[in-house]
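Bug #77: duplicate submission created two jobs. Keeping one. Sequence:
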Amino acid sequence: MTRLLPSLRGIPRTLVFGAALTVLAIGGTFLLDPYRNFQLATIAAYFCAAAGLTLLIGQSGQLSLGQAALMAAGGYGYALTANAMTDAGVTGLPRFLAGMLAAVVVSGALGWLLGLAAARLRGPYLAGVTLALVIAVPAIAAVFSGVLRGDQGVQIAYDGVPPLLERLIAVEQWQAWVAILVAGVVVTALAALARGRLGLRMRAVRDDDTAARLNGVRAGRVKVSAFTVSSVAAGAGGAVLCFTTQSVSPGAYTLAFSLLLVVAVVLGGLGSIGGAAIGSALIVLLPWLLTTLTAALPVPAELAQRLSGNLSILVFGALLIVVMLVWPGGLASLRRRRRRPARSPKPADADPGSAAAPDSTGHSGPGAGGHAAAPDSTGHTAPAAGGRAAPGTTRDAAPGATRDAAPDAAVVAGGPGPRHP
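Kept job's structure:
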């Protein structure tokens, strides 16, 4: 994209790049069969949640184990709103937009409450709060079974293909289109936020909370904002998943799935949007590949039944260990390593062993071979070739030459920087 549009920089480049990838993904659905389009829609739903999580962990440095609970909040918000709109006689695009709005509002409000706790907690304490949230999802569904329907979940009305596209695409391809469009909007917005002032402040809080506060950054507000943005992305992913599967239930948002989202963003690369896409694809495709491979091999039925639920977990664990040992930055770091420019060779030294003779002032000039010249009558030594002084000697620095290294607060906080006398 940089070569095609070299004049674009910053957020405009991110918007154009996100729109181009969205169009390419929609065009790619014509090359896939219905089941592959269903898988693509599921990947897009997971991509929204994983992108929000990688922004939260990689950019702001806050660990959350409850991303699945936030997806469940978005899914239930979409399902209940869509059913209410159906009862009111509203269908089609207005029903979908109303459900999406309810999903992001419910999940965003829940994330805002988590952010208030995150402003005062850190490390394992914060992880424990988010862990309790995802564990409480089945209990909440059971307590409010009159609305959330308990373990059975909530079913929504069938969303078919619009009449204008009925003869062109199947329903699975239409669901993939909707999922890709939502994922494109959500992920492009997250990438723009990461490149903007909020992303800069989140990285400042992640690197050093105290230093960020001293530079005028309100760390508590930044943490709350990071949790809210991540929760909105997760809620959008839950709504897309509910739209694709036509239902939402607590059994789909378990602790294992929440931990799998964390593993996905770590495998892809923390803080990388591309890494979140890689991890989302692994969540969907790797279990399917293992199931297909197990079915093709002559494995006893009892052993195949045992492997069906545990083999994918074993492979994910082994893959996580290997990636962390070989590529600590995740799979997305492979592209950055390939693009790293080669180091320029050091200039060759001249013929060693020759030193410059003293000039008319009594000072010695630089040696031709990189060796230092002999000290003159004042005790000073001229620099050798390449700017290197003789071993054991120091250069005299003029008083007051030390530069002030105080950080500029205007870069992070957006306000005027400190003035020096």
